[in-house]
Amino acid sequence: MQRPEQRDEVEMLALMLLIRRFEERASQQYQAQKIGGFCHLYIGQEAVVTGAVAAVRDDDYIITAYRDHAHALARGTSADACMAELFGKETGCSRGLGGSMHFFDRSRHMYGGHAIVGAHVPLAAGMAFASKYRGEDRVTLCFFGDGAINQGSFHEALNLIALYKLPVVLICENNLFAMGTSVKRSTSLKQIVDRAEGYDIPGEIVDGMNFREVRDKLAEIVNSIRKDPHPAFVEIRTYRYRGHSMSDPASYRTKEELEKYRLDDPITRLRAQLTREGKLTNEQFDQIDKKAKETALASVKFAEKSPELPLEKLYDYTYVNRPSA
Amino acid sequence: MGEEVAEYHGAYKVSQGLLERFGPTRIIDTPISENGFAGLGVGAAMVGLRPIIEFMTFSFSLVAFDQVVNNAPNMFMMSGGQFNVPITFRGPNGPAHQLAATHSHATESLYANAPGLKVCTPATPRDAKGLLKTAVRDDNPVLVLEAELLYSSKGMVEPPDEELLIPLGQADVKREGSDVSIICYAQTVPLALATAAKLEDEDISAEIVDLRSIKPLDEQAIFNSVGKTHRVVIVEQDRPFCGVGAEVCYRIQKNIFDELDAPIIRVSQEDVPMPYNERLEKAVLPNADKLMSAVKKVCYA
After folding, report:
1. A149-161 pLDDT, tens per residue?
2. From residue A276, how far is each of A268, A271, A273, A282 by CA, in Å?
3. Whole-angstrom Cα distance, residue B163 to residue A87?
4. At A235, is the pLDDT very low, low, confident or very high (cuts 50, 70, 90)?
5. From B3, B54, B103, B105, active-site residue
6. Is the dihedral of CA A153, A159, A163, A169 positive or negative?
7. CA dist list (Å): A312 to A91, A154, A315, A316, B210
8. Nearest-neighbour CA in chain A from B220: distance (Å)
9. Domains and their CATH numbers in chain B
10. Where along chain A do its domains lie?
């Protein structure tokens, strides 16, 4: 197998830590009522997006659902711009107009941040359609949760993607719960990956708590798509430690279940792998974690002192070249 | 892109000849998946293509409502101005002939209600071409609401050596008059013109204002006409409740109330799902008799 563009694993561990510390700060700021609306945290799922971005080029397209803070951070959007977005500030990655569920960063090919479940899967089809139309070898990574797979838009998009042989990796981040409804209560299949079979799209199951497995599996798929455009589906099995959103105490699952996954924590696991191989010392890890905490804290300060979009600009973001009537 | 646009040459033959001319990479048949291919268009537009999505009828666009209303027009705001969506949705809209409730929707007020969308309603071959070209070039999502019953109309389109672009938000006075303004669009334009000819016999001179664009709305053209005639009938293919006519009516009374010599009357559909029965369907739709009597009423004739 062709190895992916090997991004330094210690750097990727640092990214996972940044995501976690950022989300912890976001949680705290939400409780302090500095952040409005809904806020869905990614804690526990870090290896999924980190492994995925490690497997692709910077100009590949990425699109996801509403649990999107990590996807922007993984793409290189600054913690400052992300936290400022949560605070609704003009310095946010969507100028404070999108909020938690609508993070966008055009320069880093991060295409949102979409809050209607499943509605962005057709958009991914269109992005990949455009790449293929232009003869580019770009790949689109489309992330969605296990809740999306029962939406009509998902099914229509999968058929179109397969029919037109579009270069999309459909990444189901299966964290076992669509809000409070377990996959067992929402989905007729024994395993989600079988959805792909119905559309003649090759599918695989990947351990989402293992950074290396996610990266290597996706790199293999992406390299094959670049040579010959086609879709692929991966069910990445993961777990979110927090509730669906900040207002959800997650009483629908047991403490034992949560504890089981915490013991298999993706950050702890990569740390152990690197330590065992002599690539990381405890001191280095502490140093990286300290930096992640500092960056997250600094982003709060940045967001606090950032300005809001002036009221006079309210009408500037409805139409390009705003019409007069 | 749309259902039957390529190899079948369009359900109403609107895309006839395009496959031969542009080939299958640009003229693309889709399965019956309005939500899917409307969303595909939005995604392609986000990364720089300029898709034209055909709905076989806008009644079917309701299946794609989420994409047309929740994705296309919201992206620019949600992304803080990073992503605009230069897409055109087009197809026949409004009641045709005995298609019954599911296939007779006039969707203009639904879509005009969504900030970020533009909506136009051509009534002549020339306007259809000029508005469609403008729609495609617009950097925002635009809906071109055509009319099945007008597909057979014939008329001058454009001289071969001249580019025809009709701006969105520019109404057209299709007939000059002095006694009453009949404000209309789409299928009600030929109805209004025919009624105006009959009104001549009764010595009533009607001015016909074709809105052409529902959003942006050409307020000034409406106000100019009303300033001249002081009497208004709005005839729309739309439903009465929260319809286009209600918006036009509101703007007239708000801005030029003193110009009015009589209350405005709206002639629209009856507020019922469309019946199949031909006689009942006719009773639901605006027609010449309803329009005539509305005009006479505002003229106190």
Report:
1. 999 999 999 999 9
2. 12, 8, 5, 11
3. 48
4. very high
5. B103
6. positive
7. 16, 39, 7, 8, 33
8. 9
9. 18-150 (3.40.50.970), 172-298 (3.40.50.920)
10. 9-304
Please give the CATH number for the structural domain made up of A9-304: 3.40.50.970
Residue A202 burial (10 A CB sphere; 0-12, 13-18, 19+): middle
Supply the pLDDT for residue A7: 72
Catalytic residue among B3, B9, B20, B34: B34
**Which are the contacts of A217, defined by CB distance < 8 A and separation ≥ 6?**
A204, A206, A234
The pLDDT of residue A30 is above 80: yes
Cross-chain residue pair A121–B48, CB shorter than 8 Å: no
Joined tokens for residue B134: 């403008």
The mean pLDDT values, 10 residues at a time, for chain B of 301 residues are 95 94 97 98 98 98 98 98 98 95 96 98 96 97 96 84 91 98 98 97 97 98 98 96 97 98 98 97 97 97 84
Kindly compute the dihedral angle of the four CA atoms of residues A84, A90, A96, A100, in this order, to the nearest 10 degrees.
-20
Question: Do A77 and A103 form a contact (C-beta atoms < 8 A)?
Answer: yes
Q: Which of A186, A71, A178, A62 is nearest to A120 (CA)?
A: A62
Average of per-residue pLDDT values in chain A: 94
